[in-house]
Design brief:
The complex is a heterodimer of chains A (about 550) and B (about 210). Chain A is of the alpha+beta class and about 550 residues long. Chain A contains 15 helices and 13 strands. In chain A, a hairpin with a 6-residue loop joins strand 1 and strand 2. In chain B, about 55% of the residues lie in helices and about 5% in strands. In chain B, helix 1 crosses helix 5 and helix 2 packs across helix 4. The two termini of chain B are about 35 Å apart. Classes of the chains: A alpha+beta (about 550), B mainly alpha (about 210). At the A-B interface, helix 1 and helix 15 of A face helix 1, helix 2, helix 5 and strand 2 of B.
Chain lengths: ~550, ~210
């Protein structure tokens, strides 16, 4: 008998340990034998190539060693070899700042009718303050000459300042200042020759500092990405893959792959296996649509959940990002002069010229269904001021096969709208007639809306608005990807707001749960009472063996 | 008033006992991990719970196929044929007679290991609840390959409902094991295979201990 017991329990123990062993094996990290997730393997393959090499060194070209006195001259020098570059570039959004929607006829873009809830409007390039980031020399907008160096020069040299100094010093006839001018000229020629593909600083000058400062707009793009470590961005980390921006934002004819207003970054998510010429802009391009280990339930998520949703646990992980902007508070002056107040994160929380701000770090994104495009409220669209106006909001639906759950930064604002025309307004900010000079909002609006050729009734108030930024940079190493229970949890999960789908761990039918627990309770009480009954019954509920004929 | 001597017969074969305890282990493990996945509590962590649940669940389906094979090749399926004979008296016994110290109205024998109430319960369990649970679980697992032909929520609701029924079964079943000659006599019967019955019960030669196999 004993040996049998041993056999049974031994068998069970073996079974249990077998189950657990297989379980542990299935969830083990990749080992040295290359047993790693297919998505990692494929991504490594996609970037396996020799170091970038070139057949030219621009600093050796005589045409770039001239004594330039203006930026336009440098561009002429560039175009003397790159004869098609200007024509190509003039068609790109980096030049036009326009993204016209052929279907609706709407003019999106900073030079069009698009608005945001930061500095509100570009006023059709009339607001010169915005043109600091435009790709023409001397803030001339599309009237000017292309500034090739903005994207292709890696020296970090301030060419605008240099030209101002050269022109000032070399024309005053003083031999001492002539010498200074000559020195600057030397430095300038030295700097001009440093021509490369755009590096992070080139893109970052505008894209890290959009909205007037570091990390103001995008929560996932700020100067911390100039030299990030792997923890901050697993792709760009200088201690890791060290990707430049252009590694993913691939280019054809000067058109850089990326999201543009209502257009998603790519229409179709294709891996390089399906199409090796596809832009590498999406995760899927390199990591495939089944990136995790083959038997992993995680791969079943990729039809509904974006990679970013789990692999970017929070944004603004190093530098703070602006979370809200209240224009109603703008215009407060001290002794007739504008002032600003810094907050605990070392960022301004009040500026007379702009209003009140809040900043935050390590922000948990908000999640929405998204097909990669955004809907925008332009300065011409009629709004409902009783609602929070979504100046920019993700487009997507749970039933749309192209939509996934994506993380977003939502920037909240209070900005002016026309009480009669029910449109958002576009005050002019910089310049002599701008709000930052006059502190006269109605007048600034009148000028700003005039630039856009949109009527202003004269009556305005402020409305609450939101502006959405997709969070797609700052991908963390896989160990920092979200735990399941960030979403698969009954209450306060990350996607508690997304209804209409069954999410295990979050959802249930209360009727079944309530009846179920009631039944379990009933069973426990039932057997409890039955047991107590037997305890107090005759012979403790056991058969009095001398009276019984049958066993139970 | 004749005194009855308790003797033992070999009632449950090695495979039956093995299957019983393995399935008990599987069901308990699935209930523990399943209700964690359901969000009722946190124990192993969601991911581990899912991995264990999936692995054990899929293993169960494969092992269950062996059980079905065994059931039909040995003819043991006949043990599950429902009957109304004496059903009422069994119900009456457990709700009344047991407190009076009355005898159980149905005796165990190798040809009828289950009393009418057990037959009904185990038939509902093995032929209905467990297959439904396995089917909904499998569809749930393979949801991505079903092309939205069935709502995940429906699968989940049925799966949860049956899980609650199984918890109820487990509670009552475990309690019922204490109603034998002694508190642990039924459990020991399911471990050793030897069940206690009264001497006067007609038993075949092969059922006797000396023919232990």
């Amino acid at each position: 008998m004993k040996s049998k017991l041993k056999l049974i329990f031994g068998g069970l123990a073996l079974m249990v340990s077998g189950l657990l062993a297989v379980q542990l094996y299935a969830s083990a990290p990749p080992d040295a034998n290359g047993n790693e997730a297919i998505g990692r393997k494929m991504a490594k393959q996609a970037i396996k190539r020799e170091k970038k090499w070139s057949t030219t060194n621009h600093s050796n070209h005589p045409v770039l060693q001239e004594k330039f006195t203006s930026g336009e001259q440098i561009t002429e020098a560039c175009l003397s070899c790159h004869s098609e570059a200007a024509e190509q570039f003039h068609k790109t959004i980096h030049w036009t700042w326009l993204a016209e929607d052929a279907e609706t006829g709407k003019k999106y873009g900073k030079a069009g009718d698009s608005l945001n809830n930061f500095c509100l409007s570009g006023n059709a390039m009339e607001d010169k303050g915005c043109l600091k980031c435009h790709t023409a020399w001397n803030k001339k907008g599309t009237q000017g000459q292309i500034n090739c160096l903005k994207c292709h020069n890696t020296s970090g040299f301030n060419f605008d300042e240099a030209f101002t100094d050269i022109n000032e010093f070399s024309n005053d006839g003083d031999p001492e200042t002539d010498e200074i001018a000559a020195d600057i000229q030397m430095e300038l020629v030295d700097a001009v020759g440093r021509i490369e593909l755009p590096d992070r600083k080139n893109c970052g000058t505008c894209h890290f500092k959009g909205g007037g400062g570091d990390g103001v707009k995008h929560g996932d793009l700020d100067t911390s990405l100039t030299k990030p470590n792997k923890e901050l961005d697993v792709h760009m980390g200088i201690d890791g893959e060290n990707f430049s921006c252009t590694r993913c934002h691939t280019t054809s004819n000067h058109n850089i792959a990326g999201r543009i207003y209502t257009n998603p970054a790519v229409a179709e998510k294709k891996s390089l296996i399906e199409d090796d010429l596809a832009p590498k802009i999406t995760c899927v391009s390199c990591h495939s649509s089944e990136p995790h280990k083959n038997d992993s339930k995680m791969n079943d998520h990729t039809d509904k959940v974006s990679c970013q949703a789990c692999h970017i646990p929070s944004y603004a992980r190093v530098n703070p990002t602006k979370m809200s902007w209240d224009w109603t508070k703008a215009g407060d002056l001290k002794d007739g002069k504008p002032y600003h107040t810094d907050g605990p994160l070392g960022k301004p929380i009040y500026k007379s010229i702009k209003g009140e701000f809040t900043w935050d770090k390590n922000v948990v994104p908000e999640y929405f269904w998204s097909d990669g495009s955004l809907s925008s409220t332009t300065a011409r669209d009629v709004i409902d001021p009783a609602q929070v106006v979504k100046v920019s909001h993700p487009v997507g639906d749970k039933d749309d096969p192209d939509s996934r759950i994506y993380p977003f930064k939502i920037h909240r604002g209070k900005q002016p709208y026309d009480k009669v025309n029910k449109t958002l307004l576009a005050p002019m900010l910089s310049g002599p007639k701008g709000y930052w000079t006059t502190f006269d909002m109605p007048d600034a609006i009148a000028h700003g809306n005039k630039a856009l050729d949109i009527p202003f009734s004269g009556e305005f108030d402020y409305v609450e608005t939101t502006y959405a930024f997709p969070i797609t940079h700052m991908v963390a190493p896989k160990g920092r990807a979200l735990n399941c229970n960030e979403c698969h949890i009954r209450e306060n999960g990350r996607i508690a707001n997304l209804a209409g789908l069954y999410l295990p761990g979050r959802d249930r039918l209360p009727l079944i749960d309530n009846l179920g627990f009631l039944a379990v309770l009933g069973a426990l009480v039932g057997v409890g009472l039955h047991g107590i009954g037997r305890f107090f019954a005759k012979n403790n509920g056991k058969e009095a063996s001398n009276e019984r004929k049958e066993n139970h | 008033m004749n005194e009855k001597k308790i003797i033992k017969i070999y009632l449950y074969t090695r495979y039956e006992r093995f299957w019983h305890w393995l399935q008990a282990f599987i069901i308990i493990l699935l209930l523990i991990t399943g209700f964690e996945i359901h969000g009722t509590y946190t124990l192993l962590g969601f991911q581990t719970a899912v991995n264990v649940h999936n692995f054990v669940g899929l293993s169960w389906i494969i092992l269950f196929a062996f059980f079905v094979f065994w059931l039909f090749t040995t003819g043991e399926w006949k043990q599950y044929i429902p009957t109304t004979k004496k059903l009422f008296s069994v119900v009456l016994y457990y709700s009344w007679g047991i407190f009076q110290g009355r005898p159980h109205p149905v005796q165990k024998s190798p040809g009828a290991k289950h009393n009418p109430l057990q037959r009904l319960t185990y038939l509902a369990l093995s032929a209905l609840m467990l297959p439904v649970q396995m089917a909904t679980g499998l569809f749930y697992y393979l949801y991505n390959y079903l092309n939205n032909s069935i709502e995940l929520s429906i699968l989940a609701y049925v799966h949860t409902l049956v899980a609650f029924l199984l918890v109820n079964f487990l509670i009552v079943h475990v309690y019922m094991t204490t109603t034998g000659h002694s508190l642990f006599s039924h459990i020991s019967g399911m471990i050793t295979g030897w069940e206690e019955i009264y001497e006067t019960t007609k038993i075949e030669d092969w059922e006797k201990p000396q023919q232990n196999k």
